[in-house]
Amino acid sequence: MNNKVLIIDDEKDICFLISEILNDQKFLTKSALNSKDAIKFFNDFQPDLVILDVWLSNSDLDGIQLLKKFKQLNSSIPIIIISGHGNIDMAVNCIKNGAYDFLEKPFNSEKLIILSNRAIENAKLIKENNYLKKSNNTKSEIVGESKFILEIKKNLKKISQSNSRILITGAIGSGKKLFAKSIHNLSNYKDSLANILDFSSLDKDQMSEVFEINYKSINTNIFVNSNKTSLICENINKSSLESQKKLLFLLENPEKLEGYNVHIDLKFISLSSENLSNLVDQNKFNKDLYYRLNVIPIHIPSIKDRREDIIPLCNYFLNKFNNYKTKVFLSKNAQNKLENYEWPGNVRQISNYIERILILNQNMISKSDTEITKLPEDIEQISAKSQYKFDSGIKEAREKFEKDYFLSQIKRFNGNISKISEFTGMERTALYRKLKILNIDINKT
Predict the structure, then answer these.
(1) Is 304-379's fold the same as 394-437's?
(2) May I ask the CATH architecture of the domain 149-301?
(3) 145 close to 152: Cβ distance less than 8 angstroms
(4) Dihedral (C-alpha) 156, 158, 161, 162: value to the nearest 10 degrees?
(5) Model pTM?
(6) What is the dihedral sign for C-alpha 231, 89, 113, 122?
(7) Domains of the chain by residue range
(8) Computed from CA positions of residues 427, 429, 434, 438, in that sequence, does the dihedral angle turn out positive or negative?
(9) Rounded to whole angstroms, how far apart are CA atoms 329 and 402?
(10) Which position among 89, 112, 143, 370 has the lowest Cβ density within 10 Å, counted as fewest Cβ atoms?
């Protein structure tokens, strides 16, 4: 379903230009030249995003008054303010009154598209987060009986409510993001949506947006955007030396943002699949930044080193994917096979595999408790050998795994890029970039 955008500007040419840019990106648009039509279209058209000019001639209300009106009517719809006469006071005033961002004319069409997509995605995330809170879906995803898990559970609340920075390390798929979200959900910021910044998909333009300190980027600065919540820096080991330098500057100079009436108050959590200390020794990671991040270190062992957690995780995912309707459990024979497997993809692989078991056994799951006795035929020999050969270099092996993984997800979700993006935890732009690198044409798959 195409996203709808309401464009409000007293210049017909501007409305036409924005419509053309967004229509090319498959947005549905509607334009209003005055505040009266704007309010009518806001109610009738029910947009997913509003692009609003500050100055509206021949109107009962100006842009700021309309902004306040729209926020009263529906506070969940993001609003981007545009103006040809922008200044820092105006930008700050717009943000304070609920605008998602401020864009100065003349604007770059690519920036408008990126900002529009980001605003709509952010609104959807907030809506989903509110739904989860209302449905009381607060079950912890830190599951297991190993010594590591029991120790973490014992200290998790204390860690979560500390103001110290946290560095979570562990192999790919080990559950670093789940740990980070669990920490956020127990922190003083649990009522806000955690902000996730993935350094593996951060290009130079985005880096400028999230780290710059000026009124044009007031609401894209990552610290401002994460104020009063948690900032989860994913794949920090993939960050460039330039972005590390910019991040360190913000960590060391929070007072630089005080000119924007922002007192920075956030929980800072970094995630890495590599040992940052080793990267420091190789001059691939900023030493000062490493010391700033590594205040409370948490290392998550691979699942093969905590086998006591395999069956509790399998049972957890079985009932999670069944929406806790009835109890689904594994037979002793099935448990033994799963427990003896190495699980190179860690917790993520267990989650994906258990979801598959549930789909393949859907017909036999009844209203009462159900025992799963037979594993999928092609994985019955899962404990015997891996499907991957280990006679190639790590780069080639990683590319092979990634290509197989994404082809599997494309098949699973029938090429639906939104569902693939949500399932893999990658932003759509990063996902498209990854598919291009792997020479995967989603339209021909």
Answers:
(1) no
(2) 3-Layer(aba) Sandwich (3.40)
(3) no
(4) -110
(5) 0.57
(6) positive
(7) 4-130, 149-301, 304-379, 394-437
(8) positive
(9) 31
(10) 89
Yes or no: say if 4 and 27 are a contact pair by the CB < 8 Å rule. Answer: yes
Helices (H), 167-212: 176-185, 204-211
User: Into which CATH architecture does domain 394-437 fall?
Assistant: Orthogonal Bundle (1.10)
Distances (CA, A) of 404 to 182, 196, 343: 30, 26, 16
User: Do residues 434 and 426 lie in contact, with contact meaning Cβ atoms separated by under 8 Å?
Assistant: yes
Supply the DSSP symbol for 7: E
Instruction: Check: CB of residue 137 under 8 Å from CB of residue 261.
Output: no
Q: Which residues lie across from 354 on neighbouring strands?
A: none
Of 3.40.50.300, 3.20.20.30, 3.30.450.20, 3.40.50.2300, the CATH number of 4-130 is: 3.40.50.2300
Coil, helix or strand at residue 125: helix
Fold of 304-379: Helicase, Ruva Protein; domain 3 (1.10.8)
Minimal CA–CA distance to 94: which of 127, 60, 66, 125?
Answer: 66
Range 51-84 burial, b when 16+ CB lie within 10 A, else e? bbbbebeebebebbebbeebeeeeeebbbbbbbe
Which residue has tokens 């670093």? 176
Report helix, strand or coil for 371. Answer: strand
